[in-house]
Amino acid sequence: MECLLGLLKVRVVRGLNLAICDPLTHSSDPYVVLRHGSQKVKSSIRYHSINPEWNEELTLSITNMMLPVKIEVFDKDTFTKDDSMGDAEFGILDFIEIAKQELSHIGDGAVMKTIHPEEENCFATESQITWKDGKVSQDIVLKLRNTETGEIILHLQWVNIPGVAR
């Protein structure tokens, strides 16, 4: 049995300039799927939008901080298989290592680490891991792969589990 490290709350904020999968309406019906290991969580569908706003919180139980979180965006179809609108992934190692530290002495709003877009990650802009309101959080903009266009904006927050060692 794997040891639970904590919970990763992922707020799927919005999509930007997603692919048009329904040419007749010049839109799509997107939803987001997050995967970590064998876990899979899914957002609701936003109909007729290529710039959807979800502001939905999805939670992943983290047992292996070496595994990335994988994201897929799909266009919901009624009579055929849902269309892929792109994918991305991001590592959580730095985020969790910071979250596991004793940070009560750190000033509110402190930037703990800045992650820059690189060839090996899907970050569209630099992203800061911060300590705010007693929580470790991170805002991320990911550029979707395997598609012509699109970005996904996420907000991460770590939740320690009482009784689980830091």
UniProtKB/TrEMBL annotation:
GO BP terms in the entry: abscisic acid-activated signaling pathway
Annotated GO MF terms: GTPase activator activity; lipid binding; metal ion binding
Main location: membrane
Signal peptide bounds: 1-15
Pfam families the UniProt entry points to: C2
Annotated localization: Cell membrane; Nucleus
GO cellular component term, pick one: nucleus
Protein name: C2 domain-containing protein
Organism: Oryza punctata (Red rice)
